[in-house]
């Protein structure tokens, strides 16, 4: 992973919506007085939620002012964590897990699908600017691999064709259904369980 | 106190030390990159690994508190192997460009890899490349060499008080940067070059100039401000290549300001290397020493003593000032000597009246600081970092009479009227209570306050107020004056002033054109319209003084002669000769001595040693005479209700050397550029 690219198109100002401002105050209250800097990560995430999945520089300055901390400290945090996007990622931000279990079960096929359908490079917007994709480390759904995360939802048990179908839906602006694409309930075994069969509630 | 073992040697240490410090006490050196005595502990370079008995893994000694009964081992195969491993990782991404790196020869990484480096690299992948950052005219960056010790980041946030540097990204891609790729807005930024253990941050003016082993090193004293920072001057032949700090816990710890460090290229420009005479057509012509001596001698012999005045400058050492005084008092029978170039109030009755009495170390003990008409950040940068240190350590309350902008620490400010001082004195202001209740208050009076019309009122009434409230005693003297120039306190100690009720009589007479001969001894900051005066200028640089002169006597700069300086807290320090004056320029004292020989057929002093001992004798007599006695209150103080104006400090242009320096001009432009864009926030 190389250092995150910071978008050249930056909005001049950023401000929390009234609703998020209330939320901000709530978050800051979680920390003792004088330690309000601790809220920086939560606030950055709040910005990301409000601002279409990415954090502009103006927002970092804004947060630095709210929390009375040096701007560079906010900038450090934002560049450190891969969770914060520093350039626009579109309405749908696709994260493909390529850590070992997913990789073994064919995660790179999904990457291929994204490359064909969205953009040839990671963190690059699709032609209609609605989505982008990125390889990430383990998302913790190893039983259901390979899988992708789109915004806050998991799409599991995929292969290349299914991924292409999902991406097509996204590009059209439809909302694909999250969850397993092989009909599993959560991470339960396929075709009934093979062990502990006599125990009904296991 | 408790006991522990280092390499099976028993030692006893006090509590609160780290394992690394304990090892140092035992005389064992621990390699380190990120750890620095004066910065917070980061513990991220891992070079200082040691083995501690009963610990399964090696331990980073800089971050581990030492405790009772520890058995620390630093010379075991495990430690050796661990450090070798760390070194291999550090070198994995470090370029092999030592031959073209300015840090070569004084590089921590180079030195330590001699002990712990592996001869062959097992790293077959491509090395990381990091783009260079723009950090202004003083710091050259080569960030590929960075090993992420974060010393510079910690220095900027903690000591300099400008949290502009930071580490962005993570892991291998971590980069040290200022957020807008601009120079640090600090007068202390040059210190990050010393702190950097590798060649990532190097000095831009010194780039590819010399190798450390080629330079002659002279330990001396700085004259750029009145603090008297201890410095080391590195010379190559005649040229002063660079100036580095020297540790002095009482004054500058181990920092120096940018002006101290980088004004040294001004020593090469605009120099006066031969005597000059100005003829009727207004042009200067080169002359020999004999010619100029004869002209001056003839002129002086035909003029009455009281028609001659002498004004000394800001960078003059005390031997020169002393012989200057002798020259005027004994030879010319003239009392018209002055070292001030403005109407700053001076009560010369006691030494404490113009000193920083609480001492620079005392700042850290203080519990309340009140600034009157001063901007310590630009007037005495090192002192300002001490105030910041005191603020960080004790959360000292700081109030300034004026709003003076960013001082690198938070402070409250008042409107800046002299009315407030009056209210404080009359116990009508909130501050009166605070001053009374403070154990060790620090009242700092700046030049801007003393120069104002009510300067005398401010000084005398505050002094008597502090005296009445028992804040001036043998143990703690809360009255402090910040002087701006290196030679100010020395001049006052030697009595280079002609004081009438605190005002500068010589300057008044000079403005009324009462003098026929004006002898400017390195005085370049005088605002004076010349009429019929015959002006002799003796100094090192072709600056404002030389411009109006009729005769120029070329002298040396502070690095080119031995001489004493007294800093603002009254400490006498000796500056040593690192280089020699250019051309046929002579040492300052020698010029005056030779001149007096021509005039009077008799030298004032046989040699430099006689001059030195005579001056030191004078000083010790003066100090004895000045021993704090009873306080005499001044009467008839004139109060003027006015706003004290902090004069815009042209920090980078404050003296002749700095004005001749290209680097200082660049810094000044950079600073003004920020101002004009209005984004300095």
Which sheet architecture does the biggest sheet of chain A show? 5 strands, mixed
Structural class of chain B: alpha/beta
Strand percent estimate of chain A: 5-15%
Kindly report the name of the CATH homologous superfamily of the largest domain in chain A.
Answer: Glutaredoxin
Q: Largest interface by residue count? A: A-B, 12 and 13 residues
Low-pLDDT sequence parts of chain B: 677-681
Helical amount of chain B: 25-40%
Descriptive report:
The complex is a heterodimer of chains A (202) and B (681). In chain A, helix 6 packs parallel to helix 7. Chain A is built from seven helices and five strands, in the order H-H-H-H-E-H-H-E-E-E-H-E. A five-stranded mixed β-sheet of chain A has the order 2-1-3-4-5, with helices on one face. Chain A is 36% helix and 10% strand. Chain B is of the alpha/beta class and 681 residues long. In chain B, strands 14-13-26-25-24-15-16 form a seven-stranded mixed β-sheet, with helices on both faces. Chain B has a five-stranded mixed β-sheet with strand order 2-1-5-3-4, with helices on both faces. In chain B, strands 19-18-17-20-21 form a five-stranded parallel β-sheet. In chain B, strand 10 and strand 11 form a beta hairpin. The C terminus of chain B is likely disordered. Chains A and B meet through helix 4 of A and strand 7 of B.
């Amino acid at each position: 992973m190389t250092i995150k690219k910071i978008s050249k198109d930056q909005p001049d100002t950023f401000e929390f919506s009234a609703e998020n401002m209330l939320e901000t105050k709530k978050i800051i209250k979680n920390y003792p007085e004088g330690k309000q800097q601790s809220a920086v990560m939560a606030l950055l995430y709040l910005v990301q939620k409000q601002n279409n999945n990415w954090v502009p520089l103006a927002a970092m300055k804004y947060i630095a002012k709210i929390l009375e901390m040096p701007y560079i400290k906010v900038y450090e945090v934002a560049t450190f964590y891969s969770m914060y996007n520093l350039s626009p990622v579109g309405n749908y931000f696709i994260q493909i897990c390529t850590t070992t279990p997913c990789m073994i079960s064919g995660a790179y096929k999904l990457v291929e699908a994204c490359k064909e359908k969205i953009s040839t490079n990671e963190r690059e917007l699709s032609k209609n600017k609605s989505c982008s994709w990125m390889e990430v480390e383990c998302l913790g759904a190893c039983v259901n691999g390979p899988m992708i995360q789109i915004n806050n939802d998991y799409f599991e048990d995929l292969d290349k064709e299914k991924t292409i179908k999902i991406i097509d839906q996204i590009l059209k602006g439809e909302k694909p259904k999250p969850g397993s694409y092989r009909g599993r309930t959560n991470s339960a075994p396929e075709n009934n369980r093979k062990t502990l069969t006599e125990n009904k509630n296991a | 106190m408790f006991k522990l073992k280092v390499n099976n040697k028993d030692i006893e240490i006090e509590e609160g030390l780290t394992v690394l410090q304990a090892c140092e006490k035992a005389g064992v050196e621990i390699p380190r990159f990120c750890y620095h005595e004066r910065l917070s502990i980061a513990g991220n370079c891992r070079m200082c690994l040691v083995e501690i008995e009963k610990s399964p893994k090696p331990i980073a000694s800089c971050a581990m508190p030492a405790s009772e009964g520890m058995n620390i081992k630093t010379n075991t195969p495990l430690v050796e192997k661990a450090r070798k491993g760390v070194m291999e990782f550090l070198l994995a991404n470090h370029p092999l460009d030592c031959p073209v790196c300015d840090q070569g020869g004084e590089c921590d990484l180079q030195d330590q890899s001699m002990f712990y480096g592996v001869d062959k690299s097992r790293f077959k992948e491509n090395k990381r490349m990091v783009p260079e950052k723009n950090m202004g005219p003083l710091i050259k960056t080569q960030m590929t060499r960075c090993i992420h010790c974060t010393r510079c980041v910690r220095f900027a946030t903690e000591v300099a008080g400008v949290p502009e540097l930071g580490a962005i990204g993570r892991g291998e891609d971590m980069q040290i940067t200022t957020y807008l790729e601009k120079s640090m807005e600090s007068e202390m930024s040059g210190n990050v070059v010393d702190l950097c253990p590798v060649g990532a941050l190097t000095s831009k003016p010194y780039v590819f100039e010399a190798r450390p082993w080629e330079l002659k090193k002279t330990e001396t004293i700085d004259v750029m401000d009145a603090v008297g920072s201890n410095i080391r001057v590195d010379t190559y032949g005649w040229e002063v290549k660079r100036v580095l700090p020297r540790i002095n816990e009482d004054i500058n710890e181990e920092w120096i300001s940018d002006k101290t460090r980088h004004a040294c290229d001004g020593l090469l420009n605009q120099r006066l290397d031969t005597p000059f005479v100005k003829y009727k057509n207004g042009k200067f012509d080169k002359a020999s020493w004999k010619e100029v001596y004869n002209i001056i001698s003839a002129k002086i012999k035909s003029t009455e003593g009281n028609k001659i005045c002498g004004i000394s400058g800001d960078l003059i050492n005390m031997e020169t000032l002393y012989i200057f005084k002798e020259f005027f008092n004994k030879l010319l029978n003239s009392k018209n000597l002055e070292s001030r170039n403005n109407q700053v109030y001076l009560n010369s009755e006691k030494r404490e009246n113009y000193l920083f009495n609480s001492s620079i170390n005392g700042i850290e003990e203080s519990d309340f600081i009140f600034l009157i008409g001063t901007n310590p950040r630009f007037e005495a940068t090192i002192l300002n970092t001490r105030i910041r240190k005191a603020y960080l350590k004790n959360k000292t309350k700081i109030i300034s009479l004026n709003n003076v902008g960013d001082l690198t620490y938070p402070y409250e400010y008042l409107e800046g009227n002299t009315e407030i001082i009056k209210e404080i004195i009359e116990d009508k202001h909130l501050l009166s209570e605070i001053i009374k209740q403070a154990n060790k208050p620090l009242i700092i009076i700046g030049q801007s306050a003393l120069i104002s019309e009510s300067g005398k009122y401010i000084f005398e009434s505050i002094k008597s107020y502090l005296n009445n409230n028992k804040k001036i005693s043998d143990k703690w003297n809360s009255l402090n004056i910040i002087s701006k120039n290196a030679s100010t306190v020395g001049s006052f100690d030697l009595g280079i002033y002609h004081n009438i009720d605190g005002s500068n009589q010589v300057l008044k007479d000079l403005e009324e054109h009462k003098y026929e001969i004006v002898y400017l001894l390195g005085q370049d900051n005088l605002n004076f319209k010349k009429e019929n005066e015959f002006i002799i200028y003796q100094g090192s640089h072709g600056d404002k003084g030389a411009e109006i002169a009729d005769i120029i006597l070329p002298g040396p700069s502070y690095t080119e002669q031995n001489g004493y300086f007294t800093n603002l807290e009254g400490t006498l320090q000796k500056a040593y000769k690192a280089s020699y004056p250019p051309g046929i320029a002579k040492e300052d004292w020698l010029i005056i001595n030779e001149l007096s020989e021509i005039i009077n057929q008799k030298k004032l002093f046989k040699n430099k040693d006689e001059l030195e001992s005579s001056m030191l004798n004078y000083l010790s007599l003066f100090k004895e005479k000045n021993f704090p006695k009873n306080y005499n209150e001044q009467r008839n103080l004139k109060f003027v209700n006015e706003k004290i104006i902090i004069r815009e400090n042209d920090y980078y242009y404050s003296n002749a050397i700095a004005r001749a320096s290209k680097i200082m001009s660049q810094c000044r432009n950079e600073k003004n550029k920020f101002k004009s864009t209005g984004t300095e926030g």
